[in-house]
Amino acid sequence: xxxxxxxxxxxxxxxxxxxxxLTAFAxxxxxxxxxxxxxxxxxxxxxxxxxxxxxxVRVASTPEEKEAAEWIADMFEKYGYTAEIQEFEYINRVAYxxxxxPEEVQIDVQIGGTRLEGHFAAAPLTSEEGITAKVVDCGxxxxxxxxxxxxxxxxxIRRGQNTFANMLVRAEAAGASxxxxxxxxxxxxxxxxxxxxxxxATMNDEAGELLRGEEEIMVNLKTLQYDTSQNVIATRxxxxxxRDTGNVVVYSAHYDTVPTxxxxxxxxxxxxxxxxxxxILSSMPIDTEVRFLAAGxxxxxxxxxxxxxxxxxxxxxxxxxxxxxxxMIGTAGExxxxxxxxxxxxxxxxxxxxxxxxxxxxxxxxxxxxxxRGASDHVAFFEVGIDAANFIYRCPDTIALEPxxxxxxxxxxxxxxxxxxxxxxxxxxxxxxxxxPATPNLIRSKIRKDTVKPADVQYQDNEMILKVPEM
Length: 471
Ligand code: BES
Ligand code: ZN
Hints:
By secondary structure, this protein is an alpha/beta fold. The protein is built from 13 helices and 16 strands. The strands form two sheets. Strands 1, 2, 3, 4, 5, 6, 7, 8, 9, 10, 11, 12, 13 and 14 form a 14-stranded mixed sheet that branches. The chain has a two-stranded antiparallel ribbon with strand order 15-16. The site of zinc ion has 6 residues, from helix 7.
C-alpha cells in the first residue's frame, strides 16, 4: 500500500511538472521571452561604436565600405557562420579633403560632378596622390574676385551670388587647379555641373570658414574613382533535415553611408541589430533557413539588395517567404518615437508578425504596422514578390526622420540604446515565430493564401495542425 501511494504521488508530481512546462511551452510568450531575453544591447553598442568611430563614413565602393564589409564578415564568422562576400560593379567617385598646413585636419566634402545613372561618373578626377596646393579666397566668384595667385592653386568660393557653372568657368579661366565651394546647407550640398575640367567639391559653411583663416592654408584634395561594392551574406540551414520547411527568411541591413555621415543611425543601427539576430539565431532551434544580408550601395539606389535578389534562382525566390529589413532602428531623435514597419503591399507576413510580436511583448504603442513606404532594401525583395518590410523609427505625427539624417552629425550620441533594444526584441520575436520549429505563423500565412478557413486549424501538443480541406 505504502509503495503504491509513494509511486502515485511521484506520478502526480511528474504530471504536474509536465503540465506546467507544457503550459509554458504552449504560451507563445515563452518563445518570445526565450529569444528576446538574449538581445545584448551592450554588445550592439560596442559594435556600433567600432563601425561608426573606428571605420566611420562608408560610401559605396570606397575602401572604407570594403573595410566595413570585412569587419561584418569577421563578426559572422565569429558567430559560427561562413560569410560570403558577394562583389558587384558599382562605379563611384568620391572626394577627400585634408588640410595639410598649418596643421592636419580632415574636412567633410562632397564631390562635384554630373550624375550619370545615379552616380558621379562624370566628376573630374585627380591622381591617387591628389592635388596639394594653397587655398585662395575668391569671394563669391565674381569676375573681379579672382586674385592672380589663384593660378596653380585651389580656389575657394562661397555659394549664393553666382551659379556653380559660372564659378567653375571662372576658376578654370583664372588657372585654378581645383575648386572648393562653400555651401551653407548640407541639404543642398551637391554641385552637379557638366563639362567641368577641374576637380571640384563642396563643403559646409563651418568648413569653408576654417579654410579662410589668416594664415596660409595648404590642402590636399583627392577625387577618386572606385569600381566595386559588395554584399556580405551568412546562412544557417535547419540542423534537423526532417524538420526543414524548405523556406528561407532573409534579415537585411545596409552598411554603406552617404558621404560625410558616419552613419550611426543610418544604418549602423540596422547592421548591429542584424548581427545580434545572427548571433542569437546561431544557436536556436529553427525549421526554416535563415540568411543575413549586409547590403552594400543602398544609399546610391538599393544597388546591393537588387543585385542580391537578381542572383537568386527562381526556386530560391519561391522559397524565400520573408525579408525583415532594418534601417534606422536606434535613433535618439526626440520626435522619432514610433517604430514604423514599412511595406509596399499592405499587410504582409512581416508586418503582421511584427505587430503580433509587439503586442505579445507589450510594445503595441511603439509600433505602426503596416505603413506604406519604400526607400530601403525591402523594396528589392518586394519587387520579386517576397513579403518584405523595413523597420524604422519616425515621428508618429509628421512621419519625419531625425534632424541629423544623412549628415555628419549622425554619430554615436544620437543613438538610443533603449529603442535599439526594443526594435531588435520585436524583430527577434516576430521572425522567430516564423523560423522556429512548428512555425505557427508560417502555417497561418499559408492558410490565408490558400483560403483555408481558420476553423481548419487545430493545436495539438503545441503543434499547429492544418487540416487540408477536401477537394
Ligand atoms: N535610411 C534611409 C531612409 C529611409 C527612409 C529608409 C524611409 C526607409 C524608409 C535610406 O537609407 C535612404 O536614405 N534612402 C533613400 C532612397 C534610396 C532609394 C537611395 C532616400 O530615402 O532618399
Ligand atoms: Zn538607410
